[in-house]
What does this fold into?
Amino acid sequence: MHTEATAAQPDVSEMELVKRCQQGDTAAFDELVTRYRTRVFGMIYNMVHNEQDAWDLAQDSFVKAWKSLPRFRGKSSFYTWVYRIVMNVTIDWLRKKQVKGAGTEFDDAVQLREVDPASKTLPRAEALPHERMEQSEVRARIDQAIAQLSPEHRAVILMKETEDMQYHEIAESLGCSIGTVMSRLFYARKKLQNLLRDVYENV
Amino acid sequence: MFMKTFEEKWTAWIDDQLSGRELDDFLASLPDRGTAEVEKQSVKQLGTFLREQAVTLSNADFFSHQLRERLDREEDQAEYETESTVSGWWTIRRLLWGAATSFAIFIICAVFVLRERTPASQSQYLSEILSYRVDPSVSPNASITMFEKKDDHVTVLWVDGLQSLPPEYAAK
It folds into this structure.
């Protein structure tokens, strides 16, 4: 799994950072957040399709992770554990939103800027207007297609396709069996193929 | 990996997780292998497309900054709540101790006052009679009972079983 750590930071092992966090070292937690914040945010954004909500839920997830760290025993990898928290927070939020009947919202205004992987903050040169528009349309299609999946199916396909997680890691993160993960992946892929085939085959 | 359903086997095949006999059996079970291969490529294309379109966090450092501030704020609040809970318990303990001490002082005073008041409220006449010792050898079944009605200033002294009056009393 790729992380956001840069060459400037020493390659401290994840478990070492976790141990330091458990002793109350906030700098170590900061380092862990830096490693996973973009992926966590991207994952949540794909689930909720709104930048502000994704931002808030990512913050909530990391706060929850910090509070729960003393109970982390290292039986699974840290990122699987964090993803479990992220999924619980996000799926709970989606269910509550469904119950409230707020419907699906799309954040069309979100400006999705590509970020140079070598940099944490500096954006690459802006795309041309027509490219931005195309990109925005493609993004909207993806959001609309993913919105038609259940929260559980969304989680599975995003973890597999965008996070490149293994079946057992997804199963751990979602608290279900590997068979369930594979079955959900089958149906989620079928649905997205039907909804997005014209987009991804022509990009 | 033990797979039971077609969906599980198909997914494993798409992700190149099938091998050996499992793979052979699965491929043999496909009605149209050509179509299945096209489908597999399509799914892989979808995966690549989704990865390429992954959203990035544009203000990553601000995200961390905001998170740090929130954690600091929540820790301060948690410490404050812990302190106030502890001081609250001190107040409750003090109140309990104060109440218990006050009650004990009240009981002691009440007993003391009652003990002081009882002899004074008792009839002087009765005190004299009670303090007067009836000789049990002369009157073994003697009993003395007093009925008092303070409002009417009446006291009835009932003496029963006396064989003879003590000479001092008779003299009165």
In short: DSSP finds six helices and two strands in chain B. Chain B touches chain A at residues 1, 3-5, 7-8, 10-12, 14-15, 17, 42-43, 45-47, 49-51, 53-61, 63-64, 66-68, 70-71, 74 (CB under 8 Å). The longest helix of chain B spans residues 60-121. The mean pLDDT of chain B is 80.
